[in-house]
Amino acid sequence: MQGKDWLAEQFEGNRGHLRAVAYRMLGSLNDADDAVQEAWLRLSRSGGEKIENLGGWLTTVVARVCLDALRSRQSRREEPLEGSESETAVRTARRTDPEAEALLADSVGFAMLVVLDRLKPAERVAFVLHDLFDLPFEDIARIAGRTPEATRQLASRARRRVRGVSAVPRPELTEQRALVDAFLAALRAGDAEKLVTLLDPEFAVHADAVVRPTLPEGIHGPEAWARVAMKTAAGARLARVALVDGGVGVVIAPRGKLFRVLRFTFVAGRIAALEVLGDPERLRQIDLAVLGE
Fold first, then answer.
1. How many beta carbons lie within 10 A of that of residue 282, not counting itself?
2. Domain end (from 130, 145, 163)
3. pTM of the model
């Protein structure tokens, strides 16, 4: 019989991997740590004597805990309980280490976390375990309670949603990406002159009802807007390029939680218009995907 100290040592050796799996499934550092802790409780209760592949066993346990959590989360979205969201927010604020979660979210990719959050629970589990951690479909099928072929289809469906489908030809997409990358770089550097060179002479900014009150009125043309943009350039560090409704756009998602979406209109190699969206209902309707290199 293995001692408790040996078991704890083996578990700690797997903790980093388990946390990485759980975070990509749940998108929350607190929830990921809870899932990992649950795996430890189950391991300590089992004693570990009959477990041949401890790493595989722990990954399976964490994946099942995450799948249950995702299904429970989906049920709460469909049948919201009064006060549940505010209580969760208070509890999360009390427990979260913002810096640690921000670093972890950045390492995964804010756009990736936003897109993963839109998948169905079984799709997310199948995609994360297979595409991000190389687990075979036979193992994932046992976790998801599906056949290997059905699990393969789940991962394939999720993969299509994560990668998305561009509405523009590849050369045009590449040009759009270069413009948006340069746009963000100019904002981050506080370079108003460079920003103006990227904008069409008739450049205009549009915003939905949530964002509009935060924008100055009467700003017309690239020079005037560039001067205003420099005052909020610090927010550009949170912006990430993504595929937005089939074209190159930007998401702002602190710790992977979608906050703003920027849609661009491109004309003759310049940015002709910018639309800033912040209304939660509109954000849910936008087709988002991860934009590959």
1. 13
2. 163
3. 0.81
